[in-house]
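We emphasize that the prediction below concerns an isolated chain of 153 residues; any contacts that depend on oligomerization or on bound cofactors are therefore not represented. The input was used exactly as deposited, without trimming of termini.
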Amino acid sequence: MTPRLDYFKAAPAAMKAMLALETASRQQSIPTALRQLVKMRVSQINGCAYCLDMHAPEAREAGVAQQKLDVLAAWRESPAFDARERAALGWAEALTRIETSCAPQQDYDELAAQFSEAERVDLTLIINAINSWNRFAVGFRSQHPARTRGDDR
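Result of the prediction step, given as a token string:
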């Protein structure tokens, strides 16, 4: 796959705004490990190899167990995730697939049972930010570096 363009060079002001959004999303109340799990799941749904490659090492650095990363695509069937993680992942999926999910009440109720109002907004900001990054990376075909076996950064 050939990259289409370097969006940072093509529109630096737009990317400055995206970086500000990213910075804001990192300063919210959601713990880093959970933030990384959400970013990984959204990037899986969106098929964004660039973001998956970026966030997997960050998730491990934040203390996310490799087992959770290994079974993340099937989190609903795995006992590895606690109630808070499940609520966040369900909300992330609902918002990422909003055209078919319409953000169902059940997902919101599970979210509300685990997160304060401010945390719900913070989590939604994180979900929106990674969806935006995925659309830049997938749309313009950003390439992650190829690594050899055992080279996990």
